[in-house]
Amino acid sequence: MVRIAATSGRVLAALLAVQLLFGINYVVSKFVLHAFPPLVWASGRIIIASIIMLAVALLLRRKHPKPDRKFFVPLIFFALLGTVINQASFLVGLNYTTSTNSAILNTLIPIFTLLIVTLRGQEPATPRRVLGFVSAFVGVLIMRRVEEFTLSNTTWIGDLLTILNCLSYAIFLSYGKKFLEKHDPIWTTTWLFFYGSIGLTLLAIPDYSRFHMPVINSQLAWAMVFAIVGATLLTYFLNFWALANAKSSMVALFIYLQPVVASFIAWIWMNETVGARTVLASLFILIGFVMALSPEKRWYEVLLGLGRAFKPTKI
User: Fold this and answer.
1) What are the backbone dihedrals phi and psi of residue 3, each rounded to the nearest 5 degrees, phi first?
2) H runs (alpha helix) in the chain
3) Distances (CA, A) of 161 to 154, 155, 311
4) Helix, strand, or coil here: 67?
5) Which residues make beta-bridge pairs with 313?
6) Which of 108, 205, 272, 307 is in Cβ range 3.0-4.6 Å of 166 for a Cys bridge?
7) CA 208 to chain centre
8) Interhelix angle for 276-293 vs 258-270, to 10°?
9) 97 in helix, strand or coil?
10) pLDDT single digits (tens) 150-207
């Protein structure tokens, strides 16, 4: 029997995979959201993901954590933060603000996370780490075209909801770490999906009452499959696993890679040109990562860690 040990390289690889899957999902989800209301789709995909994850846990015969209040009660809190409030405020907020505002405000997640873990005494805010976060933050702002950010009476509700999404997920990354360290990642993900599906379905009831199932062609079907398996099951599981084996701020920092991945995908799939602005922004982000991830290591040691990402370890 073989398992993947939680080395630093494997954690980095898991977090990179999450950003790649999310980057692809930005393109794929456009097809799905043309056919489904956002909350209906968020509810439906997490219900299906819950069923699949439960089947995986049972087939693998994973040992269930002790079914007591110490396991089930905190899950309610973490599901609210990590799925219900997070997804609902992001999706609804996007409807009431501009895509530029949403993209820029979502870069607050790592900043909020670093602030929370520092105030709680979870992690030290060394000058090098802070400069690394600032460098990556500046890079994302350049790539997201911060000069197009606008504040108006028509966007403030959406902007506040987007900020709530960032704060909710940052709190989850900080407070959920110890819980995820203690319990089986597959069962924890299963129950977080289950609780999340209840919350999102309750929020989606008004949309469900007006919803009519669209005609599902092959293109839409494949987009739905990817969104459920790739952008929900794998991303959440890998993120939860990484959070159990890495610092909360490190997991949050990788969110800054999403615009880089999205630009790379647009260049590969859509023949979009890569301008000097994108290159400059990517450079700031890369410098920020090298400074923030391993302040005690040299830059090439950080990169070489990925080369050892998938070496199996026998139990």
Assistant:
1) -130, 160
2) 8-35, 38-59, 69-79, 85-95, 99-105, 108-119, 127-143, 156-182, 185-209, 218-228, 235-245, 248-253, 258-270, 276-293, 299-304
3) 13, 10, 42
4) coil
5) 3
6) 108
7) 26
8) 140
9) coil
10) 777 777 888 899 889 999 999 999 999 999 999 998 999 999 999 999 999 999 999 9
286 in Cβ contact with 151 (< 8 Å): no
Which candidate, 233, 204, 215, places its Cα nearest to that of 91?
A: 204
Tokens of 194: 């289950």
Domain range enclosing 146: 2-314
Output the six-digit token pair for 132. 């690394």
CA distance 58 to 267: 41
Q: Would you state the structure tokens that stand for residue 249, as one six-digit string? A: 């701020």
Would you call 314 helix, strand, or coil by DSSP? strand
Taking the C-alpha atoms of residue 80 and residue 173, their distance in angstroms, rounded to an integer, is 13
Look up residue 78 and give its two tokens.
């973490």
Domain count, the chain: 1
Cβ–Cβ < 8 Å for 6, 245: yes
Q: Which of 60, 88, 45 is nearest to 204 (CA)?
A: 88
Only one residue has tokens 């960032």, namely 166
User: What pTM does this model have?
Assistant: 0.80
Token pair 């040299």 is at which residue?
A: 298
Exposed e or buried b per residue across 57-68, where buried means at least 16 C-beta atoms within 10 angstroms of its C-beta: beeeeeeebeee
Tokens of 34: 């043309």
